Amino acid sequence: MRKDHTHPEGTVHGLHLQSECLRGNLLGDPSRRRIDVYVPAGHDGGGLPLLVDLVGYTAGGPAHTNWKNYGENVPERLDRLIGSGAMPPVVVAFPDCFTRLGGNQYIDSAATGPWETFLIGEMLPFVENTFGCGGDGRRGVFGKSSGGYGTLVHALRNGGRVWAAAASHSGDVGFEYLYHLGEFANALRHLQNHGGSIEAFVRKFEEGPKAKDADWHTMMVLAQAATFDPDPSQFYGVRLPVDPDTCELLEERWANWLRWDPLRMADVEEQRDALRGLKALYIDCGDIDQYNMVYGSRLLHRKLAAAGIPHTYEEFPDNHSSVDYRMDISLPLLAKALS
To answer: Pairing with 323, which of 5, 171, 235, 293 sits 20 to 30 Å away (CA)?
Structure first.
């Protein structure tokens, strides 16, 4: 049941794309991918800007088009925002980028797959050719958590060239605060329940019947390891950047993680220039984010401000969870910039 029946309903098209770049990936994930595409009421998509929704860890794009209890899914939110005049009409793509390790950071990896290549080289042309939307200067990307991280990295690497606007909600920034001071020790302790074996833990996780919160947190760390520092010779390409006995950082491996931290990437002038090529850049974070992302977000904001990079930064009184309501701010901002 829709929460709001006062505005015209757009259409969600369920498409599938057979990816060539994902074929034969190390994890054995399917290369045929679902892409839901929202087209607003009264439009066929032609000539409209295109936004791409990168969802957070544990989800795939179509999760945002599913019915949502006591709230709105993203298409219903778009119906309300567009129908009320809060934002101009846009097409929105929801690509399924879920992996066997529970999610995605939307970059190319020898373990999880070439997801940046998929999104830019295959998904974008497929959606734009199908609906006649987007194009140079008319593409935006947004997401929350891992999706916010993917948004920031895509903006840093492809801003002004592929993407013209970007909005990150509670994106992964400041890896020391998030991983080193938070997640690695917890993951090692949890792996001890499985003899310290990553493979034994993952096999048990996949067998079920029920995953606990600690299981998901450990799986998240393994997914990040396979993304930022993949080793195809290891099970699922996973190797941790810490000593399994002492949790001391292994500097060479940790350096591979840090080069993907948006806080470090923003030190590279070429990537700063990419951000300058955006028509709009929006970043936010809850001021009590339980993953410590607010500290990295504040540092990134200061770094961008010092470099004279136009952006909007906001902190809101909340944590990391259930913050889709923030899209009421970001989606109109993106749509107006691209229109």
So the answer is: 5
